[in-house]
Design a protein that fits this description.
This protein is of the alpha/beta class and 293 residues long. It is 36% helix and 20% strand. Strand 11 and strand 12 form a beta hairpin.
Length: 293
Amino acid sequence: MDTTAASVNKTALNPSKFLSAKMWITITVVLFVAIFFVVSNRIYNSQPAKVVVNTKNLDAAQYETLDKVMGKKEAGSFFTAVLPELKDQVMEQDWISQVDIERKWGEGIVITALPREAIARFGSEHLIDSQGKVYKPVTESELLQPGLIMLQGDADQSTLIMQQMQQVNQWFAPLEMQVEDLVLTPRMTWAIKFDNGMRIIVDNEHTSQKLMNLSQLLQNQLADKKDNIASADLRYKNGFVIDWKANVEETTPSSSTNDEAKSQPPSKENIVEEKVTGTAAQEASAEESEIPL
């Protein structure tokens, strides 16, 4: 009986078997970690991730254009793709206003873009949004959208031009007049055509005050004659000049601020010869050549 107990104790306390079990556990753990590292590394640095352009917010032409552009970009793998760099590449398309990029497992790198919304045409080939950003549309058909105002001028002045259009529309809204064509010339002269056909030309001195004064006069003193006015020249320090429509029997223009001007006979300085012009740009050019600023 003592012999059996001694044999059991000897087996249980055998250090070589204990060390052997510990070694195998260690080897197993090391192998597991190594395999996990290799597999993870292969997944992390796998084939380049698929770049997917979301069709949301985009029409067919915009989607096709962006998908073609981004299809040529190297995004890296699903995990290594640098999303801010991809965002910068998308924003190189000036017709895009905002973009959101995210990793979606099973899909790839998903790009959701928001195109700019035009409020007017800018020149013959560009559009402008509410922030004053001038951009070239994806297709020329976007230039033909109904209801777009025509703005013209230096692209560097686009924000100023857009803000002036919005301000003028606000001032003349009570008269149910909206800007149809607005030009800022290199000499900083504004030429405005409204949707009722009336044209206004004004210089860059006290521009806002002159336009507001005219709006008030058209609502009050000149209310009954508003529809007979072809154009108004506001580039005078002490008043302005009205050009009446051809079928109206009016011979003398009005002045808003100088009573003396009313009593003076018509002259080169206080009348505007009647003209037939096609656009606000043409009128601005013609007026500038006739009356020095």
